[in-house]
Amino acid sequence: MSVKAHYPKALQIRELEQKITSELNLQGFILSRTIWGTSICSDEVNNSFNIFSRLFVGPGPFRFGGISGLPFTGKTGVMAFASHIPDKGGAFILYGPHIGVSKEGKSGEILRQRQDSNSTCCGSLIAGLSAIQNPSTIGEETASDYQQAQVVKMLNAERDQILSADDQIKEVTEKAYEKIHTQVKELIHDCKDALVGKKLYLMGGIVINTNWDEEDYFDIRNSEVIELT
After folding, report:
1. How many whole angstroms separate alpha carbon 99 and alpha carbon 77?
2. DSSP codes joined into one string, 103-123
3. Most exposed among 52, 103, 134, 220, judged by the fewest C-beta atoms under 10 Å?
């Protein structure tokens, strides 16, 4: 089963780059006056998206996301990002969770470079899934693992729907997307005073990682322009 079998509308990174460029130009963004940020998981496999930095001023991206892709930098991060937007310029934000699809078509795992066997992807979401499958293992929230505690809390709130899904790994990824989307929009609203007069382009979706020697994908779920006046 290929990536397209799981996500029929997913675009390869090169295709996504072309779409981003086309959409931003169509919406009147001047790329030489546009910065970019991401709210995707801090897993190094997602550095494949760093090639988009050549489209924008920078260096970028500004990273809002922690493990799982939730925007853990919060209001402080968005306020900082807003202060970096070029004069008479704009900003592009790419956000969403990630999921691995191996060469064999299995969701939730990929083969990483110099490893002999597949490993989990997204490890944070799969660990969170394991926690809600076995609630007795959910411990108290600690400062040393704060981010994962929030991931587990997010998934536990959707426990019944997740555990009844045919593909629970894909389901936790969908739930993570919904949460990231909501939080990104809320943060922009909460920081609206700092963004007045700025033009933002948001693109949300699912990052699909593949084996290390193959190209990654992105399944677009939302794209919108926000102009605060």
Report:
1. 25
2. TT--BTEEPPTT-SS-EESSH
3. 134
pLDDT tens, 116-152?
Answer: 999 999 999 999 999 999 988 887 888 999 999 999 9
Greatest CA span in the chain, whole angstroms?
A: 54
Tokens of 4: 């397209």
User: Domain spans of the chain?
Assistant: 3-227
| 146-156 helix and 123-133 helix, angle to the nearest 10 degrees | 60
93, 38 Cβ separation under 8 angstroms: yes
Architecture of domain 3-227: 3-Layer(aba) Sandwich (3.40)
> What's the whole-model pTM score?
0.96
* Cα 91 from Cα 167, distance rounded (Å): 35
